[in-house]
Amino acid sequence: MMQELLAAGAATAVAAVAYVGAAARVVKQYERGVVFRFGRLRGQVRAPGFTMIVPVMDRLHKVNMQIVTMPVPAQEGITRDNVTVRVDAVVYFKVVDAAEALVRVEDYKFAVSQMAQTSLRSIIGKSELDDLLSNREKLNEGLELMLDSPAIGWGVQIDRVEIKDVSLPETMKRSMARQAEADRERRARLINADAELQASKKLAEAAHQMADAPSALQLRLLQTVMAVAAEKNSTLVLPIPVELLRFLERGGSGTPATPEHHHAPLPPPVPPVPPEAPAPERPPSEAYLAGRQDAVDAIEDLTGASVDPAPRHDDEP
User: Fold this and answer.
1) Dist CA 18 CA 83 (whole Å)
2) CA–CA gap between residue 94 and residue 108 (Å, rounded)
3) Residue 79 class from Cβ within 10 Å (0-12 exposed, 13-18 middle, 19+ buried)?
């Protein structure tokens, strides 16, 4: 009898240990347990720690409550100003209601991913290129609102949405680079022009000051010579301003000339030479006349016509 009782007690103990081993569950701190009994949601969500379920009848599903970082694949679209871009983003979300996340949607992670892709495409089509490049905070807020509205019914909360990168075509990049270069060149020219204007005003003031004190111009010239000579140059090209010459001229005209400064008197001017009279014409010589007559006779013999041998007024001796 005692052996039967001991055997029954041992069997009961083994059954109890087996039951506890099959019914015992441990839920971690960052998890929540959802129990389904015969496929029906059972009671409240199990808190972290040790919990018990009914074997065979209950099924415990653990839901991670940590923040999930999900990258959104790059989406290609056309902005409102007709520029083709590729934009990728990242979504931070977490489960706030474990039961709703399991009951309302089949796979809440896949659902959030697809919703993020469609919302990103919608944001690209509604925005301009400048907004995507410089006004991302506003776009992030709009994208977060678009994702958070349907995710509330899934027991999921969207913490933050960030646009990671905006890829542009190479032609657009070159156009933007040329635009930025032209803008910087324009600003550089404006700054140089402003500097020239200010310098010209200061130079005009300095010129008025030097006009009131002509000796200041000479002192400034000597300072320039000293500054150039300090560089140990072998050649010094020094321009002499006209004002300095005028200053020296005014200074020289005010002092009386000494006898040492007198120059020798200039010689009297040479009278102009009258033009020569034309030489009188001389009569032709006898040799010239004889040669002329011989030429006339030869012409008459060849032509058979008579030739006047009288000399003309332009014949030379």
Assistant:
1) 67
2) 10
3) buried
- Asked if the structure places residue 240 within a domain, the reply is no
* Total count of domains within the chain: 3
Tell me the backbone φ, ψ of residue 73, rounded to 5 degrees. Answer: -60, 150
> Half-sphere exposure (CA, 13 Å, Cβ side) for 198?
6
Question: 42-66, pLDDT tens digit by residue?
Answer: 888 888 988 888 888 888 899 999 9
* pTM of structure: 0.55
> Strand 156-167 relative to strand 58-64: parallel, antiparallel, unpaired?
unpaired
Cα–Cα dist 313/305, whole Å: 23
pLDDT for res 205: 87
Question: Counting runs of H as helices and runs of E as strands, what totals does the chain give?
Answer: 9, 8
For residue 161, the enclosing domain spans 68-168
Between CA 197 and CA 203, with CA 199 as vertex, the angle to 5 degrees is 120
